[in-house]
């Protein structure tokens, strides 16, 4: 038998456990109290943003060289998980800041990174990611937004749909067609600013959940940007978009974990308090089995998500598979756990007087965005059949 002196064989490093405690303290005090209100009023949770920013949890992944906290992929996942446990809509602040900036981090020039990352690190600006279009969702390659080179500028025209934090974010990674005949190799990525002439936004979508997170269309009407705002070489945008999602699907998995943990924690407390037939409902085996299944599935999802986060940090060859698997599994589990949490609360769970109905509505989106779970299964099957899984 091999003994690892002074080190645990298989547990979170102490530093990561401390990060969890620190985020939980901030979220219990300053994020959770606004969650119901953000949901009820469909309003961006500014108080959460301010609290996360003050504690440097608004964009923890930004490397230290750009003034960021320099959190690794696992620490970033833990931050997002803990924020989502309190308020799923607020967890899209660190999650979408990572999504929006990841193309820059993976493929941007030194100048672009130096210009656009420090404001995000400081919390002066948020960064959104514009891939989807009205007619190009799962089939993102069919996008029609165009970027045309005109001297030393690109001119962008098109409509991006379902853009998280649109209007709130100062910066946008926009994917657009630069070579119409070349399909996925004819797409390029650009940094667009909210302040650029010709950029405007649609009305906020009226959604089932994550209501505090604004989702809008982004309109690009002859938006003229300097050519050096291209991220990477022309024609590499789609590859950058997919590489980004490999990393950020891990953060959606983390969001799903957090939502599910919030629901489980609430259901456990309720089951001990609620009395029927002269005893706490937690004494009934039917409830106990439900709680046991919820805890078991959540922990399995967490282990897969953290393994995927480690692979993201190392950019392992099988990250594509693990990112898809973690997102798909954790989001399916979050939907099951939040639905069961409503069941544990009975009729009360079905009302807005208790948080689990919000958590159930919020969980649903994790099965849809950053690629639906059908798309994740396509990705996983492809990787398995290639022999990379
Ligand atoms: C609240 C919200 C926030 C979002 N934020 C962003 C964002 O910030 N940036 C961004 O770019 N996008 C964002 N999206 C878009 C999101 O990623 C897309 O909605 C998603 O990829 C699915 O695209 P679609 O809605 O067009 O569905 P469709 O692609 O039309 O899919 C409809 C159904 O068909 C299924 N389907 C499609 N193709 C296949 C196939 N080949 N095999 C089997 N089933 C298939 C899907 O799984 C789904 O069930 C957001 C969406 C929402 C709702």
TrEMBL record:
PROSITE patterns per UniProt: ACYL_COA_DH_1, ACYL_COA_DH_2
Keywords, alphabetical: FAD, Flavoprotein, Oxidoreductase
UniProt cofactor(s): FAD
Domain Acyl-CoA dehydrogenase/oxidase N-terminal: 14-124
Ranges that cross the membrane: none
Catalytic activity: a 2,3-saturated acyl-CoA + A = a 2,3-dehydroacyl-CoA + AH2
Coiled coil: none
Annotated Acyl-CoA oxidase/dehydrogenase middle domain residues: 129-223
Gene3D superfamilies named among the record's database cross-references: Acyl-CoA dehydrogenase/oxidase, N-terminal domain, Butyryl-CoA Dehydrogenase, subunit A, domain 2, Butyryl-CoA Dehydrogenase, subunit A, domain 3
Alphabetized SUPFAM superfamilies for the sequence: Acyl-CoA dehydrogenase C-terminal domain-like, Acyl-CoA dehydrogenase NM domain-like
Pfam families: Acyl-CoA_dh_1, Acyl-CoA_dh_M, Acyl-CoA_dh_N
GO molecular function: acyl-CoA dehydrogenase activity; flavin adenine dinucleotide binding
Family stated for the protein in its record: Belongs to the acyl-CoA dehydrogenase family.
The protein's name: Probable acyl-CoA dehydrogenase fadE25
Organismal lineage: Bacteria, Bacillati, Actinomycetota, Actinomycetes, Micromonosporales
């Amino acid at each position: 038998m091999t003994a690892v002196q002074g080190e645990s064989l298989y547990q979170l490093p102490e530093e990561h456990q401390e990060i969890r405690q620190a985020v939980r303290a901030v979220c219990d005090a300053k994020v959770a109290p606004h969650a119901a209100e953000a949901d009820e009023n469909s309003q961006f949770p500014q108080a959460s943003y301010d609290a996360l920013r003050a504690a440097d949890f608004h964009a923890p992944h930004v490397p230290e060289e750009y003034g960021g906290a320099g959190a690794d992929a696992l620490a970033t996942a833990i931050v997002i998980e803990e924020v989502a446990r309190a308020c799923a809509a607020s967890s899209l602040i660190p999650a979408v800041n990572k999504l929006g900036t990841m193309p820059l981090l993976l493929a941007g020039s030194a100048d672009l990174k130096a210009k656009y990352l420090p404001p995000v690190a400081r919390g002066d600006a948020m960064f959104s990611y514009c891939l989807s279009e009205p007619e190009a969702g799962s089939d993102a390659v069919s996008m029609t937004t165009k970027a045309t080179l005109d001297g030393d500028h690109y001119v962008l025209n098109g409509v991006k749909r379902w853009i998280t934090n649109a209007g709130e974010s100062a910066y946008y990674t926009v994917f657009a067609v630069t070579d119409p005949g070349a399909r996925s190799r004819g797409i390029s990525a650009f940094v667009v600013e909210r302040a650029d002439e010709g950029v405007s936004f649609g009305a906020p979508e009226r959604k089932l959940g994550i209501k505090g997170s604004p989702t809008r269309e982004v309109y690009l009407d002859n938006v003229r940007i300097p050519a050096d705002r291209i991220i990477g070489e022309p024609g590499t945008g789609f590859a950058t978009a997919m590489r980004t999602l490999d990393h950020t699907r891990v953060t959606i998995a983390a969001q799903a974990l957090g939502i599910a943990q919030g629901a489980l924690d609430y259901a456990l407390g309720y089951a001990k308090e609620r009395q029927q037939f002269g005893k706490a409902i937690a004494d009934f085996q039917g409830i106990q089995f439900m709680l046991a299944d919820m805890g078991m599935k959540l922990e399995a999802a967490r282990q897969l998500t953290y393994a995927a986060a480690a692979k993201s940090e190392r950019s392992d060859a099988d990250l594509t598979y693990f990112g898809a698997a973690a997102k798909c599994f954790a989001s399916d589990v979050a939907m099951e756990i939040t639905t069961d949490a409503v069941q544990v609360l009975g009729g009360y769970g079905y009302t807005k007087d208790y948080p689990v109905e919000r958590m159930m509505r919020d969980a649903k989106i994790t099965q849809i965005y950053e690629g639906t779970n059908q798309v994740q299964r396509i990705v996983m099957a492809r990787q398995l059949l290639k022999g990379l899984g």
